[in-house]
Structures are given as C-alpha cells and as structure tokens.
Amino acid sequence: MEQQEFYRGLAQRVRGLAEKADPLTRRRLQKLAEQYDIKGGNALRPARAVERPLPVPRTRPAASIFSGPGEA
Question: What's the rounded Cα separation, in Å, for the pair 17 and 38?
C-alpha cells in the first residue's frame, strides 16, 4: 500500500511541475504522471494511447525527381 501512495504522490508533484512548464515539456510530464497513476493504482486517469497520424500518401513522385538533365 505504501508503494501506491508513493506513486500517487509522484504523479501529483509531476503535474504541479507540468503547470509551470512549456507546452512540449508539459505533455511529457503529463504522460509521466499518467504512468505513475497506473503504478499507484489510480483508475481515475487511465493511460491513453497516443498515435501519430500517418503521412498522406503521394499520388505521384515528387517533382524534384524529374527536374534535371537525367544523370545516371
């Protein structure tokens, strides 16, 4: 039980730091706090999966491939 309280305390401290941080650091600290919540058994803040969007596929090759005298 003590270990759960330890991680809950860490999550709370990390969130306090995140409030004063720049946007990039804030996101990273919030993610860290979520991980501490999981270790602390806090079901109120479930971890969420973060996925990056896939790049839009090109329908034709970039123009830079065709610009030039055709060197081999």
Answer: 19
What is the three-class DSSP state of 1?
coil
- Residue 3: strand, helix, or coil: helix
**Residue 14 contacts residue 29 (beta carbons within 8 Å):** yes
Tens digit of each residue's pLDDT (9 = 90 or more) over 30-68: 999 999 999 888 755 444 556 678 788 777 766 666 666
Compute φ and ψ for 14, nearest 5 degrees: -65, -40
Q: What is the pTM of this model?
A: 0.55
d(CA 15, CA 29): 7
